[in-house]
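Appendix B. Raw example, untouched.
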Amino acid sequence: MTGRAMDPLPAAAVGAAAEAEADEEEDPPAADQLTPQAIEPQAIVQQAAAPSRMQMPQGNPLLLSHTLQELLARDTVQVELIPEKKGLFLKHVEYEVSSQRFKSSVYRRYNDFVVFQEMLLHKFPYRMVPALPPKRMLGADREFIEARRRALKRFVNLVARHPLFSEDVVLKLFLSFSGSDVQNKLKESAQCVGDEFMNCKLATRAKDFLPADIQAQFAISRELIRNIYNSFHKLRDRAERIASRAIDNAADLLIFGKELSAIGSDTTPLPSWAALNSSTWGSLKQALKGLSVEFALLADKAAQQGKQEENDVVEKLNLFLDLLQSYKDLCERHEKGVLHKHQRALHKYSLMKRQMMSAAAQNREPESVEQLESRIVEQENAIQTMELRNYFSLYCLHQETQLIHVYLPLTSHILRAFVNSQIQGHKEMSKVWNDLRPKLSCLFAGPHSALTPPCSPPEDGLCPH
């Protein structure tokens, strides 16, 4: 990856910004856990200290030039369940996480994913960090565990394909470090550097690259993404129902065939008054028993279609929804985080100015006035830093909005997979139904055991006698 967007600030600027924020900044996620520790191994330190960089086209660094194919090709990560292991008191679930890019396979627990996400939020508070599925609750069943596995897989793939996250040492550690203390390694890698604002050369000049109507664009983009999310949420729900119906249909067809087989296998003797029809009943039972094979095949085809649509349609819709949700979460962090802190800093500055004016009017001691002046200067620096962070947050939001639009063509892939699944499924089941149809003639025996084909029902559905 090349470009200038993530080069580090000069040390003096970093120190000044850190001091200016000391009074107003709240601790970012997991920052309270990040205390000075032992020095990293040299290779890790070099990678952690290296600036993260994003590919930029010539010209405005705000604009991205990625395609969906490029993002998807960055990595494909598999997350598979490992059989539960019993601890002293509770069983825990482990996952095998395999990366094509790093050619690695490591074992991770849910809490490892939690620390990984916390470090991403600490280093990239102005980027789309996907949410994690809920922690295991008491009485969690296999369905819950499988749903969480799928969600963790979506999470790590979205992270591994993000332009910034994919080049960060935190991701490499999570996907390739095979030691037992991966959580400590992740935390240590984040101690050596500040967040993206502190390490981006363009952070203090982000305003220069933003359009004049950035606030209006932000509001429009947020409303658009909200509408897209709501619509695709409904599509996902319908796709789930369609796939579920296919699986339910498979179960019904299988039971239907088993019942036919049960009838054909019935050994109850015929009563004497039905002895004249013994050959008819015997032929019917034999034919019904044979039909169970076709119904089992129909059930298999329906189940395959349902599973395929779960994987190729529902799961990809969930991936897209996870991405959209991470954008919505980012917008909330912008409003409740940097923007809110900026407003608080301005309010505090206003109070200090009033105190200064009051002190001057009351002719207070010079030392008291000097202290107020010093505090006002510090607050002015804090406000300036907040303004810089606010513009940098909008800068990042603009780029993350572009990434959302890069992912939009994924919807055509999803629809194509859905259409192809329906075509293939109906085609395969139609063939089995057509193969079954000639066998139905064995179910109808006429006088003197002569076989007669079934009649085609008229429009009213009743067969004439």
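End of appendix B.
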